[in-house]
Design a protein that fits this description.
mainly alpha, Serine Threonine Protein Phosphatase 5, Tetratricopeptide repeat, 3 domains, 21 helices, globular
Protein backbone atom coordinates (compact mmCIF):
# COMPACT_ATOMS: atom_id res chain seq x y z
CA UNK A 1 0.00 0.00 0.00
CA UNK A 2 1.38 3.40 -0.89
CA UNK A 3 1.07 6.59 1.05
CA UNK A 4 -0.67 9.63 -0.31
CA UNK A 5 1.87 11.99 -1.83
CA UNK A 6 1.44 15.42 -0.27
CA UNK A 7 2.89 18.39 -2.13
CA UNK A 8 2.78 21.89 -0.73
CA UNK A 9 1.74 24.60 -3.17
CA UNK A 10 1.24 28.33 -2.85
CA UNK A 11 -1.17 29.77 -5.39
CA UNK A 12 -2.85 33.17 -5.40
CA UNK A 13 -6.36 31.73 -5.48
CA UNK A 14 -5.64 29.53 -2.47
CA UNK A 15 -4.47 32.33 -0.20
CA UNK A 16 -6.77 33.00 2.74
CA UNK A 17 -8.05 36.42 3.71
CA UNK A 18 -6.19 36.03 7.00
CA UNK A 19 -2.73 36.15 5.47
CA UNK A 20 -3.30 37.81 2.11
CA UNK A 21 -1.06 40.74 3.07
CA UNK A 22 1.89 38.38 3.33
CA UNK A 23 1.46 36.80 -0.10
CA UNK A 24 3.77 37.71 -2.95
CA UNK A 25 3.13 36.67 -6.54
CA UNK A 26 6.38 35.22 -7.85
CA UNK A 27 5.23 33.68 -11.12
CA UNK A 28 2.36 33.11 -13.50
CA UNK A 29 1.10 29.90 -11.87
CA UNK A 30 -2.50 30.46 -10.73
CA UNK A 31 -5.40 28.27 -9.67
CA UNK A 32 -7.42 29.30 -12.75
CA UNK A 33 -4.63 28.00 -14.93
CA UNK A 34 -3.96 24.75 -13.07
CA UNK A 35 -7.09 23.40 -11.36
CA UNK A 36 -9.06 22.89 -14.56
CA UNK A 37 -8.77 19.14 -15.17
CA UNK A 38 -8.36 15.86 -13.33
CA UNK A 39 -4.63 16.27 -12.85
CA UNK A 40 -5.05 19.77 -11.50
CA UNK A 41 -7.81 18.75 -9.07
CA UNK A 42 -5.67 15.87 -7.79
CA UNK A 43 -2.87 18.36 -7.28
CA UNK A 44 -5.17 20.69 -5.33
CA UNK A 45 -6.67 17.93 -3.18
CA UNK A 46 -3.27 16.54 -2.27
CA UNK A 47 -2.22 20.04 -1.26
CA UNK A 48 -5.29 20.29 0.98
CA UNK A 49 -4.24 17.11 2.77
CA UNK A 50 -0.95 18.75 3.76
CA UNK A 51 -2.61 21.21 6.16
CA UNK A 52 -2.49 19.10 9.31
CA UNK A 53 1.11 18.20 8.52
CA UNK A 54 1.92 21.90 8.28
CA UNK A 55 0.22 22.50 11.64
CA UNK A 56 2.09 19.64 13.31
CA UNK A 57 5.29 21.12 12.05
CA UNK A 58 7.59 21.89 9.20
CA UNK A 59 10.18 24.60 8.70
CA UNK A 60 7.42 27.23 8.57
CA UNK A 61 5.54 26.11 11.65
CA UNK A 62 7.90 23.86 13.54
CA UNK A 63 6.91 24.56 17.16
CA UNK A 64 3.48 26.20 17.03
CA UNK A 65 1.33 23.12 16.62
CA UNK A 66 3.12 20.98 19.19
CA UNK A 67 3.11 23.84 21.71
CA UNK A 68 -0.64 24.32 21.26
CA UNK A 69 -1.47 20.65 21.79
CA UNK A 70 1.08 19.65 24.46
CA UNK A 71 2.02 22.43 26.85
CA UNK A 72 0.15 23.49 29.96
CA UNK A 73 -1.74 20.37 31.03
CA UNK A 74 -1.61 17.95 33.95
CA UNK A 75 0.62 15.55 32.01
CA UNK A 76 3.22 17.81 30.36
CA UNK A 77 5.00 20.90 31.58
CA UNK A 78 7.88 22.86 30.06
CA UNK A 79 11.41 21.61 29.66
CA UNK A 80 14.53 23.76 29.96
CA UNK A 81 14.59 25.33 26.52
CA UNK A 82 12.37 27.21 24.09
CA UNK A 83 10.63 30.56 24.08
CA UNK A 84 7.06 29.37 24.46
CA UNK A 85 6.94 28.52 28.17
CA UNK A 86 4.11 31.03 28.69
CA UNK A 87 1.80 28.40 27.21
CA UNK A 88 2.63 26.39 30.33
CA UNK A 89 2.81 29.21 32.89
CA UNK A 90 -0.31 30.94 31.51
CA UNK A 91 1.24 34.36 32.15
CA UNK A 92 0.59 37.61 30.29
CA UNK A 93 2.88 36.65 27.41
CA UNK A 94 0.16 34.23 26.30
CA UNK A 95 -1.68 36.86 24.32
CA UNK A 96 -3.12 37.72 20.92
CA UNK A 97 0.26 38.86 19.55
CA UNK A 98 1.80 35.40 19.98
CA UNK A 99 3.12 33.79 16.83
CA UNK A 100 2.04 30.45 18.29
CA UNK A 101 -1.65 31.39 18.00
CA UNK A 102 -1.26 33.18 14.65
CA UNK A 103 0.38 30.38 12.70
CA UNK A 104 -2.24 27.64 13.29
CA UNK A 105 -5.00 30.12 12.45
CA UNK A 106 -3.44 30.87 9.09
CA UNK A 107 -2.52 27.25 8.39
CA UNK A 108 -6.04 25.92 8.92
CA UNK A 109 -7.69 28.72 6.96
CA UNK A 110 -5.36 28.08 4.05
CA UNK A 111 -6.36 24.43 4.19
CA UNK A 112 -10.05 25.31 4.36
CA UNK A 113 -9.69 27.62 1.40
CA UNK A 114 -7.99 24.83 -0.53
CA UNK A 115 -10.89 22.46 0.20
CA UNK A 116 -13.40 25.13 -0.81
CA UNK A 117 -11.50 25.57 -4.06
CA UNK A 118 -11.60 21.84 -4.76
CA UNK A 119 -15.32 21.62 -3.93
CA UNK A 120 -16.11 24.60 -6.15
CA UNK A 121 -13.92 23.67 -9.13
CA UNK A 122 -14.17 19.87 -9.21
CA UNK A 123 -17.72 19.63 -10.72
CA UNK A 124 -16.57 21.33 -13.93
CA UNK A 125 -13.10 19.79 -14.04
CA UNK A 126 -14.43 16.26 -13.44
CA UNK A 127 -17.73 16.52 -15.30
CA UNK A 128 -16.83 13.48 -17.40
CA UNK A 129 -15.83 11.34 -14.43
CA UNK A 130 -18.72 11.25 -11.90
CA UNK A 131 -17.17 8.47 -9.82
CA UNK A 132 -13.95 10.45 -9.36
CA UNK A 133 -15.96 13.60 -8.68
CA UNK A 134 -17.87 11.90 -5.86
CA UNK A 135 -14.62 10.72 -4.24
CA UNK A 136 -12.92 14.11 -4.53
CA UNK A 137 -15.88 16.03 -3.08
CA UNK A 138 -16.23 13.60 -0.18
CA UNK A 139 -12.52 13.84 0.66
CA UNK A 140 -12.56 17.62 0.45
CA UNK A 141 -15.63 17.89 2.64
CA UNK A 142 -14.05 15.59 5.22
CA UNK A 143 -10.97 17.78 5.31
CA UNK A 144 -13.01 20.98 5.53
CA UNK A 145 -15.04 19.67 8.47
CA UNK A 146 -11.90 18.30 10.11
CA UNK A 147 -10.03 21.60 9.83
CA UNK A 148 -12.95 23.65 11.13
CA UNK A 149 -13.11 21.23 14.06
CA UNK A 150 -9.50 22.04 14.90
CA UNK A 151 -10.23 25.76 14.75
CA UNK A 152 -13.30 25.39 16.98
CA UNK A 153 -11.33 23.38 19.54
CA UNK A 154 -8.51 25.91 19.69
CA UNK A 155 -10.29 29.26 19.30
CA UNK A 156 -14.03 28.68 19.83
CA UNK A 157 -16.38 30.57 17.47
CA UNK A 158 -14.56 31.44 14.23
CA UNK A 159 -15.34 32.84 10.80
CA UNK A 160 -17.02 30.31 8.53
CA UNK A 161 -17.07 30.26 4.78
CA UNK A 162 -17.71 27.45 2.32
CA UNK A 163 -16.65 29.49 -0.71
CA UNK A 164 -13.17 29.88 -2.14
CA UNK A 165 -11.47 33.17 -1.30
CA UNK A 166 -9.67 34.48 -4.38
CA UNK A 167 -8.86 38.08 -3.52
CA UNK A 168 -8.34 40.09 -0.35
CA UNK A 169 -11.40 40.24 1.90
CA UNK A 170 -11.78 42.33 5.03
CA UNK A 171 -15.22 41.27 6.26
CA UNK A 172 -15.43 38.40 8.74
CA UNK A 173 -17.71 37.40 11.59
CA UNK A 174 -17.50 34.77 14.31
CA UNK A 175 -20.09 32.06 13.80
CA UNK A 176 -21.64 30.83 17.09
CA UNK A 177 -20.46 27.36 18.07
CA UNK A 178 -23.89 25.73 17.71
CA UNK A 179 -24.02 26.84 14.07
CA UNK A 180 -20.36 26.10 13.43
CA UNK A 181 -20.59 22.56 14.78
CA UNK A 182 -23.72 21.97 12.72
CA UNK A 183 -21.67 22.82 9.61
CA UNK A 184 -18.82 20.56 10.77
CA UNK A 185 -21.20 17.66 11.39
CA UNK A 186 -22.87 18.20 8.01
CA UNK A 187 -19.53 17.89 6.20
CA UNK A 188 -18.42 14.87 8.21
CA UNK A 189 -21.78 13.13 7.80
CA UNK A 190 -21.53 13.62 4.04
CA UNK A 191 -18.00 12.20 4.09
CA UNK A 192 -19.03 9.20 6.21
CA UNK A 193 -21.80 8.36 3.75
CA UNK A 194 -19.81 8.89 0.56
CA UNK A 195 -16.23 7.83 1.30
CA UNK A 196 -15.10 4.21 0.85
CA UNK A 197 -14.14 2.05 3.81
CA UNK A 198 -10.56 1.84 2.55
CA UNK A 199 -8.27 3.68 0.15
CA UNK A 200 -5.43 2.50 -2.08
CA UNK A 201 -3.30 5.41 -0.83
CA UNK A 202 -2.64 5.09 2.89
CA UNK A 203 -3.52 8.39 4.54
CA UNK A 204 -6.52 9.31 2.41
CA UNK A 205 -9.77 9.82 4.28
CA UNK A 206 -12.17 6.88 4.58
CA UNK A 207 -15.68 6.57 5.94
CA UNK A 208 -14.15 5.23 9.16
CA UNK A 209 -11.94 8.31 9.51
CA UNK A 210 -15.04 10.47 9.09
CA UNK A 211 -16.93 8.44 11.70
CA UNK A 212 -14.02 8.64 14.15
CA UNK A 213 -13.94 12.41 13.76
CA UNK A 214 -17.71 12.57 14.16
CA UNK A 215 -17.49 10.57 17.39
CA UNK A 216 -14.89 13.06 18.65
CA UNK A 217 -17.08 16.00 17.63
CA UNK A 218 -20.09 14.56 19.44
CA UNK A 219 -18.04 14.04 22.60
CA UNK A 220 -17.03 17.69 22.43
CA UNK A 221 -20.71 18.60 22.16
CA UNK A 222 -21.77 16.20 24.96
CA UNK A 223 -23.82 14.20 22.45
CA UNK A 224 -22.97 10.92 24.13
CA UNK A 225 -25.61 8.74 22.47
CA UNK A 226 -24.33 9.68 19.02
CA UNK A 227 -20.70 9.25 20.09
CA UNK A 228 -21.44 5.79 21.50
CA UNK A 229 -23.20 4.62 18.32
CA UNK A 230 -20.41 5.85 16.04
CA UNK A 231 -17.64 4.40 18.20
CA UNK A 232 -19.34 1.01 18.43
CA UNK A 233 -19.86 0.96 14.66
CA UNK A 234 -16.11 1.43 14.15
CA UNK A 235 -15.26 -1.22 16.77
CA UNK A 236 -17.71 -3.80 15.46
CA UNK A 237 -17.53 -3.19 11.72
CA UNK A 238 -14.35 -1.28 10.91
CA UNK A 239 -12.00 -4.24 10.68
CA UNK A 240 -9.38 -2.58 12.89
CA UNK A 241 -7.51 -4.40 15.66
CA UNK A 242 -5.24 -3.40 18.52
CA UNK A 243 -1.53 -3.89 17.87
CA UNK A 244 0.09 -6.21 20.40
CA UNK A 245 2.33 -5.85 22.23
CA UNK A 246 1.70 -2.15 22.64
CA UNK A 247 5.34 -1.26 21.96
CA UNK A 248 4.96 -2.51 18.38
CA UNK A 249 2.47 0.28 17.72
CA UNK A 250 5.41 2.72 17.60
CA UNK A 251 7.73 0.69 15.41
CA UNK A 252 9.06 2.75 12.51
CA UNK A 253 8.53 -0.27 10.25
CA UNK A 254 4.88 -0.61 11.32
CA UNK A 255 3.32 2.82 10.76
CA UNK A 256 0.60 1.43 8.48
CA UNK A 257 -0.71 -0.97 11.08
CA UNK A 258 -4.10 -2.48 11.93
CA UNK A 259 -4.87 0.07 14.64
CA UNK A 260 -4.52 3.29 12.62
CA UNK A 261 -7.80 4.79 11.41
CA UNK A 262 -6.45 8.10 10.12
CA UNK A 263 -2.97 9.58 10.16
CA UNK A 264 -1.14 12.51 8.66
CA UNK A 265 1.68 11.38 6.44
CA UNK A 266 5.26 12.55 6.64
CA UNK A 267 8.06 11.46 4.36
CA UNK A 268 11.68 10.61 5.06
CA UNK A 269 12.45 12.52 1.86
CA UNK A 270 13.36 15.98 3.15
CA UNK A 271 12.50 17.60 -0.17
CA UNK A 272 8.82 16.61 0.15
CA UNK A 273 7.88 17.69 3.67
CA UNK A 274 9.77 20.95 4.25
CA UNK A 275 10.93 19.82 7.67
CA UNK A 276 8.58 16.96 8.50
CA UNK A 277 7.41 15.99 11.97
CA UNK A 278 9.69 17.59 14.61
CA UNK A 279 8.24 15.81 17.67
CA UNK A 280 11.43 13.78 18.15
CA UNK A 281 13.18 17.01 19.13
CA UNK A 282 10.74 18.26 21.70
CA UNK A 283 10.23 15.38 24.15
CA UNK A 284 13.92 14.53 24.51
CA UNK A 285 16.02 15.23 27.63
CA UNK A 286 19.60 16.54 27.67
CA UNK A 287 21.27 13.12 27.69
CA UNK A 288 24.18 14.29 25.53
CA UNK A 289 25.88 16.36 28.24
CA UNK A 290 25.94 13.62 30.86
CA UNK A 291 28.99 11.44 31.62
CA UNK A 292 29.56 8.70 29.09
CA UNK A 293 27.23 10.21 26.52
CA UNK A 294 27.44 12.31 23.37
CA UNK A 295 24.82 13.31 20.85
CA UNK A 296 24.08 10.68 18.20
CA UNK A 297 21.70 9.98 15.36
CA UNK A 298 20.30 7.00 17.25
CA UNK A 299 19.59 8.87 20.48
CA UNK A 300 18.42 12.10 18.90
CA UNK A 301 18.88 15.84 19.11
CA UNK A 302 17.43 17.17 22.39
CA UNK A 303 15.50 20.44 22.31
CA UNK A 304 14.01 19.87 25.80
CA UNK A 305 10.65 21.54 25.19
CA UNK A 306 8.23 19.18 26.99
CA UNK A 307 8.76 17.38 30.28
CA UNK A 308 6.32 14.81 31.73
CA UNK A 309 4.78 15.81 35.04
CA UNK A 310 5.21 13.73 38.17
CA UNK A 311 1.48 13.02 37.98
CA UNK A 312 1.82 11.35 34.58
CA UNK A 313 4.85 9.30 35.53
CA UNK A 314 3.18 8.02 38.70
CA UNK A 315 -0.06 7.05 36.91
CA UNK A 316 1.33 3.85 35.42
CA UNK A 317 1.22 0.70 37.52
CA UNK A 318 4.42 -1.33 37.33
CA UNK A 319 2.70 -4.01 35.24
CA UNK A 320 1.43 -1.52 32.67
CA UNK A 321 3.50 -2.09 29.52
CA UNK A 322 2.65 1.35 28.18
CA UNK A 323 5.25 2.96 30.42
CA UNK A 324 8.17 1.12 28.82
CA UNK A 325 6.56 1.57 25.39
CA UNK A 326 6.22 5.32 25.90
CA UNK A 327 9.30 6.44 27.86
CA UNK A 328 13.06 6.06 27.59
CA UNK A 329 14.58 5.74 31.05
CA UNK A 330 18.06 4.38 30.29
CA UNK A 331 20.87 5.60 28.05
CA UNK A 332 23.85 3.49 27.07
CA UNK A 333 27.34 4.86 26.91
CA UNK A 334 28.63 6.00 23.51
CA UNK A 335 31.41 8.32 24.66
CA UNK A 336 34.37 6.59 26.33
CA UNK A 337 36.15 9.93 26.70
CA UNK A 338 33.69 11.10 29.36
CA UNK A 339 32.52 7.77 30.76
CA UNK A 340 32.99 7.09 34.48
CA UNK A 341 35.48 4.41 35.47
CA UNK A 342 33.97 1.01 34.89
CA UNK A 343 31.45 2.16 32.25
CA UNK A 344 32.32 0.67 28.87
CA UNK A 345 30.69 1.51 25.50
CA UNK A 346 27.23 -0.03 25.47
CA UNK A 347 26.97 -0.13 29.27
CA UNK A 348 24.29 1.84 31.10
CA UNK A 349 25.47 5.41 31.58
CA UNK A 350 22.27 7.19 32.67
CA UNK A 351 19.28 5.70 34.46
CA UNK A 352 15.97 7.15 35.63
CA UNK A 353 14.45 4.42 37.83
CA UNK A 354 10.75 4.08 38.56
CA UNK A 355 11.53 2.82 42.08
CA UNK A 356 13.92 5.13 43.92
CA UNK A 357 17.50 4.04 44.50
CA UNK A 358 19.05 4.62 47.92
CA UNK A 359 22.35 6.45 48.03
CA UNK A 360 24.04 3.16 48.80
CA UNK A 361 22.49 1.56 45.73
CA UNK A 362 23.64 4.47 43.61
CA UNK A 363 27.17 4.27 45.00
CA UNK A 364 27.33 0.60 44.05
CA UNK A 365 26.92 1.46 40.36
CA UNK A 366 29.78 2.91 38.28
CA UNK A 367 27.23 5.32 36.75
CA UNK A 368 25.72 6.14 40.15
CA UNK A 369 26.15 9.89 39.72
CA UNK A 370 23.81 9.69 36.71
CA UNK A 371 20.98 7.84 38.45
CA UNK A 372 18.09 10.26 38.88
CA UNK A 373 15.18 9.34 41.12
CA UNK A 374 11.78 10.87 40.44
CA UNK A 375 12.35 13.67 42.97
CA UNK A 376 15.68 14.49 41.29
CA UNK A 377 14.31 15.07 37.78
CA UNK A 378 14.84 18.52 36.31
CA UNK A 379 13.82 20.51 33.25
CA UNK A 380 16.88 18.99 31.56
CA UNK A 381 16.72 15.43 32.88
CA UNK A 382 13.46 13.48 32.55
CA UNK A 383 12.07 10.34 30.88
CA UNK A 384 11.98 10.98 27.15
CA UNK A 385 9.39 9.94 24.60
CA UNK A 386 9.80 6.68 22.73
CA UNK A 387 6.82 7.36 20.50
CA UNK A 388 8.64 9.94 18.40
CA UNK A 389 12.24 8.71 18.32
CA UNK A 390 13.72 8.94 14.85
CA UNK A 391 16.98 6.97 14.62
CA UNK A 392 17.01 7.03 10.82
CA UNK A 393 17.60 10.75 10.37
CA UNK A 394 20.20 11.87 7.86
CA UNK A 395 22.63 13.27 10.46
CA UNK A 396 23.10 13.87 14.17
CA UNK A 397 21.69 17.40 14.14
CA UNK A 398 19.07 16.93 11.41
CA UNK A 399 15.74 18.36 12.76
CA UNK A 400 13.56 16.93 9.99
CA UNK A 401 11.90 13.56 10.51
CA UNK A 402 9.27 11.41 8.88
CA UNK A 403 7.10 9.79 11.56
CA UNK A 404 3.39 9.91 10.77
CA UNK A 405 1.09 11.75 13.16
CA UNK A 406 -1.74 9.43 14.22
CA UNK A 407 -4.98 11.39 14.37
CA UNK A 408 -7.21 8.46 15.36
CA UNK A 409 -6.48 4.85 16.29
CA UNK A 410 -8.65 2.03 17.57
CA UNK A 411 -7.59 2.30 21.22
CA UNK A 412 -8.96 5.84 21.29
CA UNK A 413 -12.24 4.67 19.80
CA UNK A 414 -12.55 2.08 22.61
CA UNK A 415 -12.04 4.92 25.10
CA UNK A 416 -14.58 7.08 23.23
CA UNK A 417 -17.07 4.21 23.48
CA UNK A 418 -16.35 3.72 27.17
CA UNK A 419 -16.83 7.39 28.00
CA UNK A 420 -19.92 7.77 25.86
CA UNK A 421 -21.63 4.69 27.28
CA UNK A 422 -20.92 5.85 30.83
CA UNK A 423 -22.40 9.30 30.18
CA UNK A 424 -25.17 8.76 27.62
CA UNK A 425 -28.86 9.34 28.37
CA UNK A 426 -29.29 5.73 29.54
CA UNK A 427 -25.84 4.88 30.94
CA UNK A 428 -24.50 1.41 30.29
CA UNK A 429 -21.70 0.63 32.72
CA UNK A 430 -21.35 -2.92 31.41
CA UNK A 431 -20.37 -1.63 27.97
CA UNK A 432 -18.32 1.22 29.43
CA UNK A 433 -16.20 -1.21 31.43
CA UNK A 434 -15.97 -3.68 28.55
CA UNK A 435 -14.52 -1.08 26.19
CA UNK A 436 -12.21 0.39 28.81
CA UNK A 437 -10.86 -3.05 29.68
CA UNK A 438 -10.09 -3.87 26.03
CA UNK A 439 -7.50 -1.12 26.15
CA UNK A 440 -6.30 -2.06 29.61
CA UNK A 441 -5.83 -5.75 28.74
CA UNK A 442 -3.57 -4.80 25.84
CA UNK A 443 -1.70 -2.42 28.16
CA UNK A 444 -1.07 -5.13 30.74
CA UNK A 445 -0.40 -7.86 28.18
CA UNK A 446 -3.21 -10.11 29.46
CA UNK A 447 -6.35 -11.65 28.02
CA UNK A 448 -8.23 -12.17 31.29
CA UNK A 449 -10.06 -9.11 32.66
CA UNK A 450 -9.93 -10.72 36.08
CA UNK A 451 -6.16 -10.19 36.25
CA UNK A 452 -6.45 -6.40 35.86
CA UNK A 453 -6.46 -3.97 38.79
CA UNK A 454 -10.14 -3.54 39.61
CA UNK A 455 -12.11 -0.56 38.30
CA UNK A 456 -15.69 -0.82 39.52
CA UNK A 457 -17.27 1.87 37.37
CA UNK A 458 -16.36 4.30 34.61
CA UNK A 459 -16.63 8.04 35.24
CA UNK A 460 -14.92 11.01 33.64
CA UNK A 461 -11.92 10.85 35.98
CA UNK A 462 -11.38 7.17 35.17
CA UNK A 463 -11.53 7.97 31.46
CA UNK A 464 -9.13 10.90 31.80
CA UNK A 465 -6.61 8.77 33.67
CA UNK A 466 -6.79 6.03 31.07
CA UNK A 467 -6.49 8.52 28.22
CA UNK A 468 -3.48 10.11 29.94
CA UNK A 469 -1.68 6.75 30.01
CA UNK A 470 -2.75 5.62 26.55
CA UNK A 471 -2.19 8.88 24.67
CA UNK A 472 0.81 10.40 26.43
CA UNK A 473 2.80 12.58 23.99
CA UNK A 474 0.14 12.28 21.27
CA UNK A 475 -1.31 15.80 21.46
CA UNK A 476 -4.70 14.87 22.94
CA UNK A 477 -4.51 16.11 26.51
CA UNK A 478 -5.25 19.84 26.33
CA UNK A 479 -8.41 19.17 24.31
CA UNK A 480 -9.46 16.35 26.68
CA UNK A 481 -9.22 18.63 29.70
CA UNK A 482 -10.98 21.51 27.97
CA UNK A 483 -13.95 19.50 26.69
CA UNK A 484 -14.47 17.81 30.08
CA UNK A 485 -14.21 21.07 32.03
CA UNK A 486 -11.14 19.82 33.89
CA UNK A 487 -8.33 22.01 32.55
CA UNK A 488 -8.09 24.53 35.38
CA UNK A 489 -8.64 21.94 38.11
CA UNK A 490 -6.08 19.48 36.73
CA UNK A 491 -3.39 22.09 36.02
CA UNK A 492 -3.77 23.50 39.53
CA UNK A 493 -3.44 20.00 40.98
CA UNK A 494 -0.60 18.62 38.88
CA UNK A 495 1.33 21.35 37.05
CA UNK A 496 2.99 23.75 39.52
CA UNK A 497 4.36 25.98 36.74
CA UNK A 498 0.85 26.86 35.56
CA UNK A 499 -1.14 26.48 38.77
CA UNK A 500 -0.89 30.05 40.00
CA UNK A 501 -1.92 31.83 36.81
CA UNK A 502 -4.32 29.60 34.90
CA UNK A 503 -7.85 31.03 34.60
CA UNK A 504 -11.13 29.67 33.18
CA UNK A 505 -10.71 31.78 30.02
CA UNK A 506 -7.55 29.82 29.14
CA UNK A 507 -9.75 27.04 27.76
CA UNK A 508 -9.62 29.01 24.50
CA UNK A 509 -6.56 30.46 22.82
CA UNK A 510 -6.66 34.15 21.85
CA UNK A 511 -7.79 35.19 18.39
CA UNK A 512 -4.65 36.40 16.57
CA UNK A 513 -4.35 40.17 16.80
CA UNK A 514 -3.58 40.61 13.11
CA UNK A 515 -6.89 38.88 12.26
CA UNK A 516 -8.77 41.43 14.37
CA UNK A 517 -6.74 44.35 13.01
CA UNK A 518 -7.36 43.35 9.37
CA UNK A 519 -11.11 42.82 9.76
CA UNK A 520 -13.34 45.75 8.85
CA UNK A 521 -16.34 44.24 10.67
CA UNK A 522 -16.52 43.63 14.40
CA UNK A 523 -14.46 40.56 15.28
CA UNK A 524 -14.43 40.13 19.05
CA UNK A 525 -11.47 38.80 20.98
CA UNK A 526 -11.92 35.80 23.26
CA UNK A 527 -12.60 36.81 26.89
CA UNK A 528 -9.57 37.46 29.07
CA UNK A 529 -7.09 38.38 26.34
Amino acid sequence: MKKISLILIALVAFSSCEDILEEELTGDLTADGVFTDEVGIDFALNGAYSTLGTFIGNNENREAGWTIITMGTDTYTNGADGGNKHFNSYNSDLNASSDIVRRPWNVFYRGINATNGVIGRAPEALADNPEKLSSVIAQARFLRGYYYFWLAKIYGPVHYTDEETIGAESEATRMPLDQLYAKIIEDLDFAAQNLPTSQADFGRATSWAAKATLADVHLHRNNYDEAAALSEDIINNGGFSLVTPVADLWSLTNEENSEVIFSTQFSDDLELDNGGNPAHLFFLMEYDKLPGMKRSVENGRPWKRFKPTSYLLELYEMEDERYEASFTSAWFSNNPDSAPAGVMPGDTAVYLPRVAFTQGEKDAKPYGASIYNRDELTEKVFPASKKWVQPNRASTNEPAAGRDFIAYRLAEIYLFASEANALKSSPDQTKALEYLNEVRMRAYGVTDIGTLPVIAAVDIDVVLEERAKEHAQEGKRWFDLVRTGKLVERVQMHNPAGAASIQPYHTLRPIPLDQIDRTSTDFAQNPGY
